[in-house]
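=== Structural record ===
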Amino acid sequence: QVQLRESGGGLAQTGGSLTLSCAASGGTFSSYVMGWFRQSPEREREFVASISWNSGNTYYTDSVKGRFTISRDNAKNMVYLQMNSLKSQDTGIYYCAAATTLTTIVNRYPYWGQGTQVTVSS
């Protein structure tokens, strides 16, 4: 079973950038699909991006395509979310998660971090 811990959240201006990191431990990181999700008082937890175990396949929700990039470094047990051209609508708590298949469905990710707050000023 893998444990996940996010970092890198904070405050950014509209149009700015932030990079989120997720460190994994306690499992075989390279065998997992990794995903990023976000949640706010206005929205239930929603899919943002995912990446296959070998980085060969990525998927993004339409609202972040062209702005966000998910990547991973299996040697370091790390996954990243580079967020550019930030909008106020990107504000929320961001969670990293691990799954056994490439999916956008929240309930198919059994392992979750505690989240990191991202706030984008309007």
In short: The first strand starts at residue 3 and ends at 7. The chain has a mean pLDDT of 95.
